[in-house]
From TrEMBL:
Residues 311-485 form the Ppx/GppA phosphatase C-terminal domain. Homodimer. GO terms for molecular function: exopolyphosphatase activity. This is Exopolyphosphatase. Belongs to the GppA/Ppx family. It catalyses: [phosphate](n) + H2O = [phosphate](n-1) + phosphate + H(+). Pfam families: Ppx-GppA (PF02541), Ppx-GppA_III (PF21447). The lineage of its organism: Bacteria, Pseudomonadati, Pseudomonadota, Gammaproteobacteria, Vibrionales. One of its GO terms (cellular component) is plasma membrane. It comes from Photobacterium ganghwense.
Amino acid sequence: MTEPEAPREIAAIDIGSNSFHMVVARVVGQSLQIISRHKQRVHLASGLDAQQNLDQAAIQRGLNCLAMFAERLQGFPPENVRIAATYTLRQARNAHVFLKRAEALIPYSIEIIPGTEEARLIYLGVAHTQPDNGRKLVVDIGGGSTELVIGEGFHPLIAYSKHMGCVSYNKLFFPKGKISSKRMAAAQLAAQQKMESIANTYMRAGWQTAIGSSGTIKAIREVLIGMGHQDGVITPERLALLIEAMLKVKQADELDLPGLTDDRKPVFAAGVAILSAVFKSLDIEEMIFSDGALREGLLYEMEDRFRFSDIRVRTATAMAEQYNVDLAQATRVKETAEMLYSQIEPQPGLTKTDLATLLGWGAQLHEVGLSISYPGFHRHSAYLLRHSTMPGFNLEQQTVLATLVRYQRKSLKLEEMPELSIYKRKHLYPLIRTLRLAVALNGQRSDSPLPPITVEANKEEWRLILPEGWEADNRLLAADLRQEQEYWQKAGWQLHLCESPLLIA
């Protein structure tokens, strides 16, 4: 009698601007069972200086926290852990320093996710942990940014991330813990100005239920309960009473509000200012609180990818349609690239499997830039893939996609390659070579299938083996491949073209 398979355990870490959170869950049947939560106040955003560099003290606080989290994750395989970093590491010019030092402490990749991706994942976390009440507005005030999403069911419809958070606004408007009506009004006005560009869009879309998530709104709810509002519902009138109570003191450490913890006091006024401005800008009548947030979104998305579909497939398909990609040609290039890569990486590990997946999407989207113009379209494609909103993709993955399509043709100016955090440049070189060959071999845009092709790779030296007599029947394509040889040679690579069994170059 075989032993029943052990339940799969998965973990998600949210590297926030104010706090780091870790949640561990067990996959039980068709649901997730949360088995532990961990939170550490790190105040990462307070370490950003005027040049947007993180100071060493903030970096060390973050690393100490990750080292503690790593103790709980011993034995977890990489595919069962997801770590997402948000606003502060998006902004920090020296984020690579933090990521490099973190590698030695925690053996899992850290993704720096765009603001809209953060908003989408927050919504997913709320949607999975909150009963469905029709269309929902979800607001999450973090340390450095505020995410606002309208969605139905598990599907976000509108998502924005605004650069206003309780840590960053505390530094701007309540320095050294100073509280006054003038400072509160300035913070509220600044937040309302941030909301101006999206308020009408959100009001037109409408919602049935407004839901707040994460620490700032949770702290406000707990104080309101302490003040006698047992249902914990946040309303404009209750926020006004809360602000009135806060303005009775002049320093944050003097705040004596029921339910307010000491570690939340320094950034509480800024959080209240932002939420009151959001209420006013969107004319919100009442808001309830949800325990779901970014880390729960990460967990549920891991489980969805494990059992259901990958949202990145929908994103890539939608983008191909948006930019009128020739789908037949994209499919030809994708299939050729995957065929070649499978020959040079017959047994890829987790990292190379991830990269092989990105290669497929890069091939599918390599011609999006043609919608702008043919000259330099590879550069246009790279720009679109790097700077578009792409649900499901983190910033590193978008950078990889942009890099692959940037180097699909023409000269190989490898010194212009961007810095990467999760992957290494040497990981991308085989993908670039593969995509270039796939693009070149399908240069005639013909529906006729390619002949049997073999590729052999020895680091920077590759052999492309084609059927005997092939060159005589494909002179134009052979000329293109010889041009490709020259590009490779200038980059310090070697491409040999062979006709089985005789070497032709």
